[in-house]
Amino acid sequence: MKTCRLISLAAAGSLVAVVFSPAFAAEAGDPVAGKAKTSMCIGCHGISGYKTVFPEVYHVPKLGGQHAAYIVKALQEYKAEKRSHPSMRAIAAGLSDKDMADLAAYYAADPARAAAK
């Protein structure tokens, strides 16, 4: 019983150490810097109700109010070519981790934002 408890405590301690390590921590975004980086976003995400026709017809998602972690993850997946939209892949390819965090912080800060205003 005592051994199980020690193992559980050791595992919990290891998990906490990994989660709070600098390598694991997500970079904090700056919404002010993010606003200055929206020029590539507003052409599609800044038009309310916009539909794109390339590579297929679909509604372009609204970015305002999305969780910052979701936006960062989506951009990382486009950059790693795990998501298929060619325009988003091209845009994400030029973004640094800091750029992604800043954009995510900007869009997450205000649900009313469609893109830069």
Please tell me about this protein's structure.
With 117 residues, the chain is mainly alpha-helical. The protein has a single domain (27-108), classed as Cytochrome c-like domain (Cytochrome Bc1 Complex, Chain D, domain 2), CATH 1.10.760.10. Helix content is 50%, strand content 3%. The chain has six helices and two strands. It has a two-stranded antiparallel ribbon with strand order 1-2. β1 (51-52) and β2 (58-59) form a beta hairpin. α4 packs across α5 and α4 runs antiparallel to α6 (97-108). It is globular and about 35 Å long. Residues 9-25 have low confidence and may be disordered.
Strand content: under 5%
Would you count the extended β strands for me?
A: 2
Helicity level, as a percent range?
40-55%
Mean pLDDT: 81
CATH superfamily: Cytochrome c-like domain
Uncertain segments are 9-25
Which geometry do the CA atoms define? globular
> Would you list the SSEs in sequence order as H and E?
HHHEEHHH
CATH architecture: Orthogonal Bundle
Amino- and carboxy-terminal Cα gap: 60 Å
Radius of gyration: 19 Å
Query: What can be said about the biggest beta sheet?
Result: 2 strands, antiparallel
CATH class placement? Mainly Alpha
| Strand ordering within the main sheet | 1-2
Total number of domains: 1
CATH topology annotation: Cytochrome Bc1 Complex, Chain D, domain 2
Structural class, judged by helices and strands?
mainly alpha
